[in-house]
Amino acid sequence: MNAIEITNLHKNFGEKHAVDGLDMTVPEGAIYGFIGENGSGKSTTEKCICGLIPPTSGQIKLFGKDHKDGEARGKIGVLIEAPGCFPNMSVWNNMKLQAANLGIKNENEEIRRVLHLVRMDGAASNKFKNCSLGMKQRIGIAFALLGTPKLLILDEPINGLDADGMRIMREILADLTKNHGCTVLISSHILGELEKIATHYGIIRGGRMLKEMTAEELNASCPTYVYIKAADMNKALAACNNAFARVEFDEDKDEIRIYDKLSAEDVASYLYSNFGIAVTELGTAKISLEEYYIDLMKEGK
Ligand SMILES: Nc1ncnc2c1ncn2[C@@H]1O[C@H](COP(=O)(O)OP(=O)(O)O)[C@@H](O)[C@H]1O
Ligand SMILES: [Mg+2]
User: Fold this and answer.
1) Looking at ligand 1, which atom is closest to the CA of residue 19?
2) On the chain, which terminus has fewer CB atoms closer than 10 Å, C or N?
3) Within 13 A of 74's CA, how many CA atoms are on the CB side?
4) Distance from residue 41's CA to the centre of ligand 2 (Å)
5) Taking a C-beta distance cutoff of 8 angstroms, is the pair 169, 161 a contact?
6) What letter would DSSP give residue 147?
7) Which ligand 1 atom sits nearest the alpha carbon of residue 40?
8) How far is the CA of 39 from the centre of ligand 1 (A)?
9) What is the pLDDT of residues 41-80, one digit of tens each?
10) Residue 159 in contact with ligand 1 by CB distance below 6 A
């Protein structure tokens, strides 16, 4: 079953078409990376999904039911803006308040459960204001996890985190989907990080879905290549263009990329023996999600 199925969603703010005919499918169990430039309509879509704002038109189904259905709604946990916490209150007491707002039963047990899920067991007595940014983001996720949702909607939850904070977040999300039957919709600008966890991607532009694909499809669309640098790059580039079928020069990295199915060693020895070119740097790499995304955005323009 699909956790989210959106058909032809529109959301207007006056003249502004924030979401403009969006289709989206998030399969159950996915970690769905929702990608798009600022202002492309990610947060608006997420707010429509969880019922924070009403769509102008279109259909949103959650686990096969209309999103306004009470049962469907009860399955969602949301972190869209930073959690509304009282800075001088402890993490535990902030959780207590939130649990009371949500009408959670067995709240002590439930709070212990969610704090454990986000690796905050030891920090319950800390004042919220003394928590690091990474801890605050995890408290936000703990809020969203109250009531055992089947679908988590996280808007930019890894912004501003350091490498360690990102790693912990990655582990938490993998644990939730693998071991707790959760589906996660996560929007982020940090594509390198998203690429490590997402099973599915949706790329949105101007309120429309530009491309949806699985991690396997992304992988297949991102070829591997051999990159080289040489003392005389012009000479090397001319030689490569002569010898190989698909060659590109990457200006950002100042390197030549060869997409033919060859090993780095083959390329180097060919250039040396046929053209006397000594390669100064070489290796193999793969097009990243970020490069794929940038290319896709260029194509669209
Ligand atoms: N409440 C609102 N009133 C008017 N315009 C809005 C409102 N919320 C969002 N927008 C506009 O809708 C567009 C999409 O915004 P948003 O969904 O926040 O994009 P994203 O999350 O992808 O950055 C933007 O142009 C934004 O300025
Ligand atoms: Mg946003």
Assistant:
1) 14
2) C
3) 6
4) 7
5) yes
6) T
7) 22
8) 5
9) 999 999 999 999 999 999 999 999 999 998 888 899 999 9
10) no
